[in-house]
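Here is an idea for our session: we take a single protein and study its fold together. Start from the sequence, derive the backbone structure tokens from it, and show both lines together. Once you have written the record down, we can walk along the chain together:
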Amino acid sequence: MIGKLTGRVDHRAGDHVLLDVNGVGYTVHCSERTLAALPPAGQMAVLYTELLVREDLLQLFGFLTLYEREWHRLLISVQGIGAKASMAILGTLGAEGIARAIAIGDWAAVKAAPGVGPKIAQRVVNELKDKAPAVMALGGTVHQALGDAPVEVIDTTTPADAPRAPVHSTASAQAEALSALQNLGYAPSEAASAVATAAGDAGETDTPALIRAALRLLAPRE
């Protein structure tokens, strides 16, 4: 299994990138969002990968983070969602966007992805709503393991001592808030929906603010 590739970008096409890894060229299919985030030809990049194996086909799919790859794996577990549809959804919404859409039952957001009809979009939300909290919780574990460092793109033009922004800190904050709410006794699906709503509607991005906003949403209304 090829799980990760580090190499020089040789060529970028509409739906894939050719990555030179020690003289071996790998064609890696990526979403539009991932392709847009990759550096230009000649620079180094890192992609986490998933290998699709069929009788007459071998295809590599690339992701900027492990968190995104986990959402891809979950999406393709839904009947009617293949790798192409998954990449379209992730390209449209991103990993955090699809997490929020599923958590709050927003199938219309999933339907916005090219080639995804309303029935498939509803199926994605219905089948994954109970699994979403577990994958959302992975966000914190993954980014803690990576040290919140920008490991997916190696920028050879930026000085080594220059300050760098953390990668997908929102996913980590949501995972921590989700864990906190579950520790308070809220059901995983209930907590995930509240956290996703707080992150989207209120625009909260740090853990304490997310917890406070989610608790307000979960508070009994008179």
